[in-house]
Amino acid sequence: MNLLDNSMAPVYLTNMLVSKMDEPNARTRLLDVAERLFMARGFPAVTLRDICAEMGLTHASLYYHFPEGKQSIFMAVLERNVRRHGDGLHAAITNSEQNLRGILGAASAWLLSQSPMDLLKLTESDMTYLKGDDAALITSLVHELILVPLRGVLDAAVSRGEIAACNTGLIAGALIGMVESLFSVPEFAVQGSREAMAYELIDILVRGLGMNQGA
Fold it and tell me: pTM for this one?
């Protein structure tokens, strides 16, 4: 093709940029960048121009993967984040010591090794920018992949007699909130490590639930 032919230049340049986004990990990299920007600035403050600038791309190449634009990118970021947390929690629960303190400690340690989900901000702010069906899907995934497994751990502990009968759904949500709150602790106030602080909170929680300390 003659690059001096101005009539073909726009098509050629667009194809070059789209082919750049065809690289195997291009979509993953795009979501990584978008996730970092959304977490740092919030959904309203991030523009497609911001994402493109970080990636070194144009709008044409970005729309190749996300033709519905910014909201579809945000939805993909949220869904990926929740599924990643769900997979990690499942692995932590499965591979930990099979007593309540060990399981909750492993789950907390994994959560603290990731970027915060910030469920309060997610439900009160971020999801207000999603369409109804998309918001319902994220809510369902959080319940199914995050809260239900932790509730199952607590239900099993009740059945084994490790803790007294309680509202395990409420406790599961409270545990997530407690662990996530440790991300907000300034460095000067961290005692030992955030993981150590999580274990202390877990000890307080399970003692309050009547755990048999010999379990």
Answer: 0.78
